[in-house]
Specification:
This protein is of the alpha+beta class. It has one domain: Jelly Rolls (Sandwich). The protein has 2 helices and 12 strands, in the order βαβββαββββββββ. The protein has a 6-stranded antiparallel beta sheet with strand order 1-10-7-12-5-2, with helices on one face. It has a 4-stranded antiparallel beta sheet with strand order 6-11-8-9, with no helix packed on it. It has a two-stranded antiparallel ribbon with strand order 3-4. A hairpin with a 2-residue loop joins strand 3 and strand 4. It is globular, with a radius of gyration of 16 Å. Bound molecules: N-(carboxycarbonyl)-S-(naphthalen-2-ylmethyl)-L-cysteine and fe (iii) ion (FE).
């Protein structure tokens, strides 16, 4: 149910190691994965992390797997529990299957971050550097509304370029791109009817160590 055909967008993001597989998940697969993620959210409800600077993030989050990403006044980090005190639900098989197809030689992911973007939610330009090991790629799955994704290089002030990520797109980020600055500028609200109540769900699978 996963098409592993690489479709580089018209205006490619020219950073080595950034690979986008447009429409890798057919609609039936998108529904199955989303259904499994809605069950994760039932067990580990979405919350709005506080940045170390004391601002509430507009993206709501939760996680599956041994470790989940967390942030508060003490900083960004991976923790083994949801803020409620229970351990994170396990990563659904439908999600592990996608990792297996794209990264058959990598170890199993230890974390599946679930990002929910409602109307007006965004994610500022940042690097992902809270993991102990950057040698394995990160895999992202987009579900629901279109998102304007921006990516630069490894320097904060470098040039950036943008592409729209759509429901069913899979992105594999490795090599030089692993430490590139990136963010989500905005969501095209109402562009997809996949997520009940609207919005966008992004899954980010990682080997954390
Ligand atoms: C490029 N999430 O959770 S996923 C994040 O759509 C995050 O929710 C975005 O950035 C989202 O940290 C983007 C695609 C992605 C993930 C990791 C990357 C792109 C990346 C790491 C390095 C460079
Ligand atoms: Fe990120």
């Amino acid at each position: 149910m996963v098409n592993k055909t690489e479709k580089i967008p018209g205006k490619p993001l020219c950073v080595a190691g950034f690979r986008i597989f447009r429409g890798a998940l057919v609609p039936r697969a998108q529904s199955r994965v989303l259904g499994d993620i809605l069950q994760v959210i039932e067990q580990a409800p979405l919350f709005s992390p506080m940045t170390p600077y004391g601002r509430k993030m507009s993206v709501r989050m939760t996680s599956a797997g041994r470790l989940g990403w967390y942030s508060d006044r003490s900083g960004y980090r991976y923790v083994d529990r949801h803020p409620s005190g229970t351990s994170w639900p396990s990563i659904p098989d439908s999600v592990l299957e996608i990792w297996q197809v794209f990264l058959p030689d990598a170890p199993q992911p230890e974390s599946c971050l679930v990002n929910y973007y409602g109307e007006g939610a965004r994610m500022g330009l940042h690097q992902d550097r809270d993991e102990g090991d950057f040698s394995f790629p990160v895999l992202s799955v987009s579900l629901g509304d279109d998102a304007l994704f921006r990516m630069g290089g490894t320097a904060r002030r470098g040039k950036t370029s943008s592409i729209w990520l759509k429901s069913g797109d899979v992105v594999v980020i490795g090599g030089a791109a692993r430490l590139a600055y990136h963010g989500i500028d905005r969501i095209r609200s109402g562009s997809s009817s996949l997520v009940p109540g609207g919005g966008r769900v992004n899954l980010t699978l990682r080997v954390v160590r």
